[in-house]
Amino acid sequence: MIKRLASGPYLFWLIMFIIVPLLMVFGYSIVQTDSSGNLSVSFSNFARAFDPIYITVLGRSLKIALEATAICLLMGYPMAMILAKMNVKYRTFAVMMFVVPMWMNFLLRTYAWMTILGKNGVLNGILSFFGLPQVQFLYSEGAVLLGMVYNFLPFMVLPIYTVLMKMDSSLIEAAEDLGGNKVTVFSKVILPLSIPGVLSGVSMVFMPAVSTFVISNLLYGGQYMLIGNLIEQQYLVVNDWNFGSAVAMILMALILISMAVMNKVGGDNPEDRGTGLW
Amino acid sequence: MKRALAILLMIVLVGSLFTGCKKEDQVVLNVYNWGDYIDEDIFDTFEEETGIKVNYETYATNEEMYTKIKKGGTQYDIAIPSDYMIEKMIKEDLVEPLDLTKIPNYANIDDRFKNLDFDPNNEYSVPYFWGTVGIIYNTNLISDPIDSWSVLWDAKYANQFTMVDSQRDSIMVALKKLGYSMNTKSVDELEAAKQALIEQKPLVLAYVGDNVKDMLISEEAAMAVVWSGEASNVIQEYDNFEYVLPKEGSNIWFDNIVIPKGAKNIDAAHEFINFLCRGDIGFKNADYVGYATCNTETMKLLDPALMGTTYAYPDDSLLSNFEIFQDPGDFITEYDRIWTEIKAK
């Protein structure tokens, strides 16, 4: 009884702020307003979303999000291992160093990159100090990728770190006692056991990366349309909420599919689930 | 029993959220304006004089403001849209009619700016500022003379200039360059403009909004399509900038003050409009934002050196090919589509 009552606020939250808005977005996506303001159910918004132009946008978003996720994983895994193996004395401090920048506003941190990468920014200042020619860092795909990796890296490191920390060290010792060298221990014991952390890290980086519009807007000067920018534009600029909602639904479907695929990949060992952040 | 108690508790808790912050009697006026488009110090003056507090919010484009008001749920008492948007908002019944008898300072407004086509009898709007769209460039970085939109298609200036991140303004540049009207309702002409903008895209450094001034000053960009007031701000502080009105013509625009539908403080809004039309307040704003005033009393206070400059009060002869934006009605969906396609490329 008490349990059920306690879930009341959450249920209310779930319905009001998750289910109802989702249904609204879905509703917008399947209607069309004609010039006289009449509503009619139609799938033309979805049909339009499969125009080659928008497929290009979608492909571009997926590509850069996957790249950002891959880089985060390649950098984040070793970082998490280093953190987990650190002496307790320094470890708390090192983890703090990862978390502290996240206390600062996300927008501000991205703006900071603009002054670093700019034509007369810090990086070009260093280059010209050594007599090297100026490089156009800002307003390029590389800048967007950098912005994504920078902003989302902690979301990769922290879940992997948590999993590595919780790992039963006797398993590793057993593997070593049985004659496994470092490579074998890592590939046969540590890596498989850390998969849940990797999976939650991957989805926590991939999801915001595939839907961001701020990073691409600032670091590529509004010229690089990702699917997030497309949705934002439909809502805020051209006032076509129906098309915007259709694109949003497609994006959600994509994320759902990729989550399902990942669950499948990492789902063979149900006991490990929940070891990640979520 | 327990359940009833819990529900009661919840009601009390939720209820206390509302009673806890019960508003005082002070009127709060919700002003919705372009970013950087008013001297915010005048809000204090207004509060001192009338006791009305101003709650201030900003937008970056007419479209953003329109979408928010159109979708409802907002309670803005004041907004400052441009000409074509006012025309559209009047058509769609999104603005309240004004009572000009409550705005005696309306007499200060120059007759040139009254009764313009988008609001023929000023039943809904009072002029605020006017200006143009043109090209500003850094004379230290660009030595060749600039007088035409075509420089924005010149590979020589690749990655040195910025465009405006606003659909009508950027499409306008392409239409004017091609010699068409910026109010065209021809799909072919729009398609041609689209092709031109897509062709131009690799040369553009960025599509920007309010941060264009910083980009110019930090020399991130050497040239930019800007609204005249932004040029005015930059030029008055730095000597090495020049603002030109392209020979193919461009946009001349008027921003007027309106009371959006749904406003809760109609009287206070009139009072605020009257306050903005006062000569000295108009001067403070003009001095801060850099755009050209529509107010004769403010004109008298301005630095005479501003007269005849391209960025503030240009000579009429320079404005011969200039057009005012009109609301394209339902045809706007074509503009929307084309802008989306340009940005998606």
Describe how the helices and strands are arranged:
The complex is a heterodimer of chains A (278) and B (345).
Chain A (H helix, E strand, L loop, with lengths): L1 H5 L1 H22 L1 E3 L5 E3 L2 H6 L2 H34 L2 H16 L2 H12 L4 H8 L11 H26 L2 H9 L4 H30 L2 H6 L7 H10 L4 H26 L12
Antiparallel strand pairs in A: 1-2
Chain B lengths: L1 H19 L7 E7 L6 H10 L2 E7 L2 H9 L7 E2 L3 H9 L34 E13 L22 E4 L2 H11 L9 H14 L3 E5 L3 H6 L5 E5 H10 L3 E4 L7 E6 L8 H11 L2 H11 L2 E2 L2 H6 L30 H13 L1
Parallel strand pairs in B: 1-2, 1-3, 5-6, 5-7
Antiparallel strand pairs in B: 4-7, 4-8, 4-9, 4-10
Helix pairs in contact in B: 5-6, 6-12
Task: Describe the protein in words.
The complex is a heterodimer of chains A (278) and B (345). In chain A, 76% of the residues lie in helices and 2% in strands. Chain A has 278 residues and is mainly α. Chain A has one domain: MetI-like (MetI-like fold, Orthogonal Bundle). Chain A has a two-stranded antiparallel ribbon. In chain A, helix 4 (52-85) crosses helix 8, helix 4 (52-85) packs across helix 10 (182-211) and helix 8 (141-166) packs across helix 10 (182-211). The longest helix of chain A has 34 residues, at 52-85. In chain A, 34% of the residues are buried. Chain B has 345 residues and is α/β, with parallel strands linked by helices. Chain B has two domains: 26-130 and 253-313, D-Maltodextrin-Binding Protein, domain 2; 131-252 and 318-344, D-Maltodextrin-Binding Protein, domain 2. Helix content of chain B is 37%, strand content 16%. Chain B is built from twelve helices and ten strands. In chain B, the strands form two sheets. In chain B, strands 4, 5, 6, 7, 8, 9 and 10 form a seven-stranded mixed beta sheet that branches. Chain B has a three-stranded parallel beta sheet with strand order 2-1-3. In chain B, helix 2 links the parallel strand 1 (28-34) and strand 2 (53-59). The chains are: A mainly alpha (278), B alpha/beta (345). At the A-B interface, helix 4 and helix 12 of A face helix 1, helix 3, strand 6 and helix 12 of B.
